[in-house]
Design a protein that fits this description.
By secondary structure, this protein is mainly β. It contains two helices and nine strands; from the N terminus they run H-H-E-E-E-E-E-E-E-E-E. The relative contact order is 0.18. It binds calcium ion.
């Protein structure tokens, strides 16, 4: 019995202290991206992170393309991916070259908006690396891409990785 109790105490000692954010409930964040250059016909538009903030919405005037959550079924902390200016997705769509640091290797579910229903998640930044996952519409569980996505694409149609 003594040894069991000792193991239990050691186990309790390793429990992580909850962060302030989780103690206060899910945190909603906003990530605003802008195009790295002008739209080129037949090419996806590359987007780079411009601004990121949690709590107060910093981008109400910007267009929401996607919203992602830390956990399955659209639960936990969330982040809205916005574009400072741009058009609806066409077949080429957008390349989001990196996540805000806090969201790297974290997304577990997402919703896609407007014409940007085709989504591909990538293991590495720069929409590269394997594995990759291809989806359409809202996704309550990203499956094999859980907690490993570092960049993504949106387009008007589902495309294979
Ligand atoms: Ca997660």
């Amino acid at each position: 019995m003594l040894s069991s109790a000792a193991v239990l105490l050691v186990g309790l000692g390793s429990v992580a202290v909850p962060s302030v954010a989780s103690a206060a409930g899910p945190e909603n964040c906003t990530a605003v991206y802008e195009a790295a250059g002008p739209k080129v016909a037949g090419e996806p538009t590359e987007l780079v992170l411009k601004d990121y903030q949690c709590g107060d919405d910093i981008g109400t005037l910007n267009w929401v393309v996607m919203k992602a959550w830390d956990h399955a079924d659209y639960k936990g902390d969330s982040v809205e991916f916005k574009i400072s200016s741009g058009e609806e997705c066409d077949i080429d769509g957008y390349r989001w070259t990196s996540m805000p640091q806090y969201w790297n290797d974290r997304i577990s579910s997402f919703r896609a908006y407007g014409s940007c229903q085709g989504v591909r998640l990538y293991n590495d930044t720069g929409t590269s690396g394997t594995p990759c996952g291809s989806y359409k519409n809202d996704v309550s569980w990203v499956g094999h891409m859980n907690d490993i996505a570092s960049s993504f694409r949106n387009s008007s149609e589902k495309k294979e990785c």
